[in-house]
Please model this.
Amino acid sequence: MSSLVSIPGILDVEIIRGARAHPDIDLLIEIPHGATQTNDYTRLAARLTSPLPAALVEFFHVNTDAGAPELAVGTAKHFVAAEPTRTVAILRCRIPRTFIDCNRRVDASPEDFKTGKVTPGLMPWITSPEDRALLRAAYDRYVGAVREAASRLADDGAILLLHSYAPRTVEVEVDLDIVKSLRAAYRPETVPTWPLRPDLDVIGKTLEGVSHAPAAVVDELRRLLPELTVGDSATYPLHPSTLAWDHVMARPGRALCLEVRRDLLADPFEPFAEMKIGASKVDRLSVPLAAALRRWW
Model:
Protein backbone atom coordinates (compact mmCIF):
# COMPACT_ATOMS: atom_id res chain seq x y z
CA MET A 1 0.00 0.00 0.00
CA SER A 2 2.98 2.32 0.51
CA SER A 3 3.27 3.19 -3.20
CA LEU A 4 -0.22 4.72 -3.23
CA VAL A 5 0.71 8.23 -2.16
CA SER A 6 -0.69 11.69 -2.63
CA ILE A 7 0.77 13.96 -5.33
CA PRO A 8 0.54 17.64 -4.27
CA GLY A 9 -1.86 19.60 -6.46
CA ILE A 10 -2.79 16.48 -8.43
CA LEU A 11 -4.02 13.66 -6.20
CA ASP A 12 -5.04 13.08 -2.61
CA VAL A 13 -4.95 9.47 -1.41
CA GLU A 14 -6.72 8.35 1.75
CA ILE A 15 -6.67 4.73 2.91
CA ILE A 16 -9.35 3.58 5.34
CA ARG A 17 -8.91 0.09 6.78
CA GLY A 18 -11.14 -2.05 8.90
CA ALA A 19 -9.76 -3.35 12.20
CA ARG A 20 -8.91 -6.73 10.66
CA ALA A 21 -8.18 -5.61 7.12
CA HIS A 22 -5.77 -7.37 4.75
CA PRO A 23 -3.30 -5.44 2.56
CA ASP A 24 -5.30 -5.53 -0.69
CA ILE A 25 -7.75 -2.82 -1.74
CA ASP A 26 -11.32 -4.09 -1.65
CA LEU A 27 -13.09 -0.88 -2.65
CA LEU A 28 -11.60 1.94 -4.70
CA ILE A 29 -13.51 5.22 -4.63
CA GLU A 30 -12.40 7.63 -7.34
CA ILE A 31 -13.43 11.30 -7.39
CA PRO A 32 -12.08 12.62 -10.70
CA HIS A 33 -13.69 16.03 -10.16
CA GLY A 34 -12.54 16.38 -6.57
CA ALA A 35 -10.98 19.84 -6.89
CA THR A 36 -13.79 21.65 -5.05
CA GLN A 37 -12.03 24.43 -3.15
CA THR A 38 -11.40 27.91 -4.52
CA ASN A 39 -7.65 27.52 -3.89
CA ASP A 40 -7.62 24.44 -6.15
CA TYR A 41 -8.60 26.82 -8.93
CA THR A 42 -6.44 29.82 -8.03
CA ARG A 43 -3.30 27.72 -7.44
CA LEU A 44 -3.36 26.28 -10.94
CA ALA A 45 -4.74 29.38 -12.68
CA ALA A 46 -1.72 31.33 -11.40
CA ARG A 47 0.60 28.97 -13.33
CA LEU A 48 -1.20 29.37 -16.66
CA THR A 49 -0.34 31.91 -19.37
CA SER A 50 -3.44 31.51 -21.55
CA PRO A 51 -5.90 34.44 -21.29
CA LEU A 52 -8.75 33.08 -19.17
CA PRO A 53 -12.34 34.37 -19.35
CA ALA A 54 -13.17 36.94 -16.67
CA ALA A 55 -14.57 35.47 -13.43
CA LEU A 56 -13.91 31.93 -14.67
CA VAL A 57 -13.81 30.81 -11.04
CA GLU A 58 -17.62 31.01 -11.13
CA PHE A 59 -17.70 28.31 -13.79
CA PHE A 60 -15.27 26.30 -11.68
CA HIS A 61 -17.73 26.26 -8.79
CA VAL A 62 -20.75 25.54 -11.00
CA ASN A 63 -18.99 22.65 -12.70
CA THR A 64 -17.02 20.91 -9.95
CA ASP A 65 -18.30 18.02 -7.81
CA ALA A 66 -18.86 19.74 -4.49
CA GLY A 67 -19.74 17.28 -1.74
CA ALA A 68 -18.39 14.21 -3.52
CA PRO A 69 -15.13 14.07 -1.47
CA GLU A 70 -17.01 14.31 1.81
CA LEU A 71 -19.53 11.69 0.71
CA ALA A 72 -16.65 9.38 -0.28
CA VAL A 73 -15.02 9.61 3.15
CA GLY A 74 -18.31 9.13 4.99
CA THR A 75 -19.21 6.13 2.84
CA ALA A 76 -15.78 4.54 3.31
CA LYS A 77 -15.91 4.91 7.09
CA HIS A 78 -19.37 3.37 7.36
CA PHE A 79 -18.33 0.60 4.97
CA VAL A 80 -15.28 -0.52 6.94
CA ALA A 81 -17.15 -0.19 10.24
CA ALA A 82 -19.55 -2.84 8.94
CA GLU A 83 -16.84 -4.80 7.08
CA PRO A 84 -13.80 -4.83 9.41
CA THR A 85 -11.77 -7.10 7.10
CA ARG A 86 -11.99 -4.63 4.21
CA THR A 87 -9.80 -1.78 2.96
CA VAL A 88 -11.00 1.27 1.04
CA ALA A 89 -8.77 3.58 -1.00
CA ILE A 90 -10.12 7.05 -1.84
CA LEU A 91 -8.48 8.82 -4.78
CA ARG A 92 -9.42 12.49 -5.07
CA CYS A 93 -8.26 14.51 -8.06
CA ARG A 94 -7.15 18.08 -7.24
CA ILE A 95 -6.82 19.22 -10.88
CA PRO A 96 -9.76 21.52 -11.75
CA ARG A 97 -11.78 20.28 -14.70
CA THR A 98 -12.10 24.00 -15.50
CA PHE A 99 -8.77 23.48 -17.28
CA ILE A 100 -8.48 19.75 -18.06
CA ASP A 101 -10.90 16.98 -17.18
CA CYS A 102 -9.37 13.85 -15.65
CA ASN A 103 -12.49 11.82 -16.47
CA ARG A 104 -12.18 12.39 -20.19
CA ARG A 105 -10.32 10.76 -23.03
CA VAL A 106 -8.61 14.05 -23.76
CA ASP A 107 -7.92 13.29 -27.41
CA ALA A 108 -11.53 12.36 -28.21
CA SER A 109 -13.24 14.46 -30.86
CA PRO A 110 -15.68 17.30 -30.07
CA GLU A 111 -18.40 15.14 -31.65
CA ASP A 112 -17.65 12.33 -29.17
CA PHE A 113 -18.02 14.68 -26.21
CA LYS A 114 -21.33 16.00 -27.56
CA THR A 115 -22.61 12.48 -28.13
CA GLY A 116 -21.69 11.58 -24.56
CA LYS A 117 -23.40 14.79 -23.32
CA VAL A 118 -20.22 15.82 -21.51
CA THR A 119 -17.95 18.85 -21.43
CA PRO A 120 -14.60 18.74 -23.30
CA GLY A 121 -11.42 17.16 -22.02
CA LEU A 122 -9.28 20.27 -22.54
CA MET A 123 -11.10 23.57 -22.28
CA PRO A 124 -11.12 26.02 -25.23
CA TRP A 125 -9.50 28.87 -23.25
CA ILE A 126 -6.31 26.82 -22.82
CA THR A 127 -4.48 28.12 -25.88
CA SER A 128 -0.76 28.24 -25.14
CA PRO A 129 1.42 25.19 -25.89
CA GLU A 130 3.10 25.56 -22.48
CA ASP A 131 -0.25 25.36 -20.68
CA ARG A 132 -1.32 22.37 -22.72
CA ALA A 133 1.91 20.57 -21.86
CA LEU A 134 1.64 21.44 -18.15
CA LEU A 135 -1.97 20.27 -17.90
CA ARG A 136 -1.41 17.13 -19.93
CA ALA A 137 1.53 16.16 -17.69
CA ALA A 138 -0.63 16.59 -14.57
CA TYR A 139 -3.46 14.63 -16.22
CA ASP A 140 -1.09 11.79 -17.14
CA ARG A 141 0.23 11.55 -13.57
CA TYR A 142 -3.28 11.42 -12.14
CA VAL A 143 -4.62 8.88 -14.62
CA GLY A 144 -1.51 6.73 -14.17
CA ALA A 145 -1.94 6.72 -10.40
CA VAL A 146 -5.60 5.68 -10.70
CA ARG A 147 -4.69 2.84 -13.04
CA GLU A 148 -2.00 1.69 -10.62
CA ALA A 149 -4.49 1.71 -7.74
CA ALA A 150 -7.06 -0.19 -9.79
CA SER A 151 -4.46 -2.83 -10.64
CA ARG A 152 -4.02 -3.48 -6.92
CA LEU A 153 -7.65 -4.31 -6.25
CA ALA A 154 -8.34 -7.65 -4.61
CA ASP A 155 -9.70 -10.38 -6.86
CA ASP A 156 -13.23 -9.52 -5.72
CA GLY A 157 -12.54 -5.79 -5.53
CA ALA A 158 -14.90 -3.11 -6.80
CA ILE A 159 -14.84 0.54 -7.86
CA LEU A 160 -17.17 3.42 -7.03
CA LEU A 161 -16.80 6.37 -9.41
CA LEU A 162 -18.40 9.17 -7.41
CA HIS A 163 -19.69 12.49 -8.73
CA SER A 164 -22.08 15.26 -7.77
CA TYR A 165 -24.09 17.36 -10.19
CA ALA A 166 -26.17 20.54 -10.13
CA PRO A 167 -29.88 20.08 -9.36
CA ARG A 168 -30.95 21.04 -12.88
CA THR A 169 -29.68 20.37 -16.38
CA VAL A 170 -28.52 23.81 -17.52
CA GLU A 171 -27.63 23.83 -21.21
CA VAL A 172 -24.99 26.41 -22.13
CA GLU A 173 -22.13 26.35 -24.62
CA VAL A 174 -18.67 25.79 -23.15
CA ASP A 175 -16.96 28.72 -24.85
CA LEU A 176 -15.33 32.03 -23.94
CA ASP A 177 -18.73 33.42 -22.88
CA ILE A 178 -19.37 30.58 -20.43
CA VAL A 179 -19.60 32.79 -17.31
CA LYS A 180 -22.00 35.26 -18.95
CA SER A 181 -24.14 32.36 -20.17
CA LEU A 182 -24.23 30.72 -16.74
CA ARG A 183 -25.21 33.95 -14.99
CA ALA A 184 -28.14 34.26 -17.38
CA ALA A 185 -29.10 30.60 -16.93
CA TYR A 186 -29.13 30.93 -13.13
CA ARG A 187 -31.33 34.02 -12.94
CA PRO A 188 -34.13 33.38 -10.41
CA GLU A 189 -36.80 33.56 -13.08
CA THR A 190 -34.88 31.21 -15.41
CA VAL A 191 -33.62 28.44 -13.11
CA PRO A 192 -37.05 26.76 -12.63
CA THR A 193 -37.39 26.34 -16.40
CA TRP A 194 -34.45 23.90 -16.60
CA PRO A 195 -35.19 20.15 -16.19
CA LEU A 196 -34.85 18.81 -12.63
CA ARG A 197 -32.40 15.93 -12.31
CA PRO A 198 -32.89 12.72 -10.29
CA ASP A 199 -31.65 12.82 -6.70
CA LEU A 200 -29.14 10.13 -7.71
CA ASP A 201 -28.35 8.87 -11.19
CA VAL A 202 -26.56 5.61 -11.96
CA ILE A 203 -24.48 6.15 -15.10
CA GLY A 204 -24.36 2.62 -16.46
CA LYS A 205 -26.36 2.49 -19.68
CA THR A 206 -24.71 2.82 -23.08
CA LEU A 207 -26.18 4.67 -26.04
CA GLU A 208 -27.38 1.28 -27.27
CA GLY A 209 -29.39 0.82 -24.07
CA VAL A 210 -27.17 -1.88 -22.53
CA SER A 211 -26.78 -1.46 -18.75
CA HIS A 212 -23.47 -2.25 -17.06
CA ALA A 213 -24.52 -1.14 -13.58
CA PRO A 214 -24.32 -3.69 -10.73
CA ALA A 215 -28.02 -4.53 -10.38
CA ALA A 216 -27.85 -5.86 -6.81
CA VAL A 217 -26.12 -2.71 -5.54
CA VAL A 218 -28.51 -0.39 -7.36
CA ASP A 219 -31.58 -2.31 -6.20
CA GLU A 220 -30.38 -2.10 -2.60
CA LEU A 221 -29.73 1.63 -2.94
CA ARG A 222 -33.30 2.12 -4.15
CA ARG A 223 -34.66 -0.02 -1.33
CA LEU A 224 -32.76 1.92 1.31
CA LEU A 225 -33.63 5.36 -0.12
CA PRO A 226 -37.29 5.01 -1.13
CA GLU A 227 -37.89 8.73 -0.64
CA LEU A 228 -35.32 9.62 -3.33
CA THR A 229 -35.34 9.10 -7.08
CA VAL A 230 -32.53 6.91 -8.41
CA GLY A 231 -32.24 7.35 -12.16
CA ASP A 232 -30.85 4.98 -14.76
CA SER A 233 -28.55 7.13 -16.94
CA ALA A 234 -31.25 9.79 -16.99
CA THR A 235 -28.72 12.61 -17.38
CA TYR A 236 -25.73 11.02 -19.14
CA PRO A 237 -25.02 7.76 -20.90
CA LEU A 238 -22.01 5.62 -20.12
CA HIS A 239 -19.81 6.71 -23.01
CA PRO A 240 -16.30 5.86 -24.33
CA SER A 241 -15.29 9.55 -24.25
CA THR A 242 -15.08 9.21 -20.45
CA LEU A 243 -12.49 7.22 -18.53
CA ALA A 244 -15.30 5.81 -16.39
CA TRP A 245 -16.02 3.65 -19.43
CA ASP A 246 -12.64 1.93 -19.05
CA HIS A 247 -13.25 1.04 -15.40
CA VAL A 248 -16.74 -0.29 -16.05
CA MET A 249 -15.70 -2.35 -19.06
CA ALA A 250 -12.62 -3.75 -17.30
CA ARG A 251 -14.65 -4.98 -14.31
CA PRO A 252 -18.07 -6.17 -15.45
CA GLY A 253 -20.56 -5.83 -12.62
CA ARG A 254 -17.88 -4.54 -10.21
CA ALA A 255 -17.94 -0.81 -11.02
CA LEU A 256 -20.61 1.74 -10.17
CA CYS A 257 -20.62 5.27 -11.61
CA LEU A 258 -22.91 7.43 -9.47
CA GLU A 259 -24.08 11.06 -9.65
CA VAL A 260 -25.58 12.66 -6.52
CA ARG A 261 -27.48 15.91 -6.62
CA ARG A 262 -25.37 18.64 -5.09
CA ASP A 263 -28.20 20.27 -3.16
CA LEU A 264 -28.54 17.02 -1.18
CA LEU A 265 -25.01 17.61 0.15
CA ALA A 266 -24.41 21.36 0.16
CA ASP A 267 -25.68 23.49 3.05
CA PRO A 268 -26.75 25.66 1.32
CA PHE A 269 -26.45 25.09 -2.45
CA GLU A 270 -24.64 28.11 -3.93
CA PRO A 271 -23.73 27.53 -7.58
CA PHE A 272 -21.15 30.32 -7.99
CA ALA A 273 -19.19 29.95 -4.74
CA GLU A 274 -17.35 27.36 -2.68
CA MET A 275 -20.04 25.38 -0.88
CA LYS A 276 -20.26 24.31 2.72
CA ILE A 277 -21.08 20.61 2.90
CA GLY A 278 -23.52 19.57 5.61
CA ALA A 279 -22.34 16.73 7.84
CA SER A 280 -25.90 15.52 8.48
CA LYS A 281 -26.63 15.58 4.76
CA VAL A 282 -23.53 13.50 4.06
CA ASP A 283 -24.50 11.02 6.77
CA ARG A 284 -28.01 10.67 5.37
CA LEU A 285 -26.57 9.38 2.09
CA SER A 286 -23.32 7.73 3.14
CA VAL A 287 -24.96 5.21 5.48
CA PRO A 288 -27.29 3.68 2.84
CA LEU A 289 -24.64 3.98 0.12
CA ALA A 290 -22.16 2.01 2.23
CA ALA A 291 -24.82 -0.61 2.97
CA ALA A 292 -25.69 -0.91 -0.73
CA LEU A 293 -22.02 -1.34 -1.70
CA ARG A 294 -21.75 -4.27 0.71
CA ARG A 295 -24.02 -6.23 -1.64
CA TRP A 296 -20.96 -6.78 -3.84
CA TRP A 297 -19.57 -9.07 -1.14
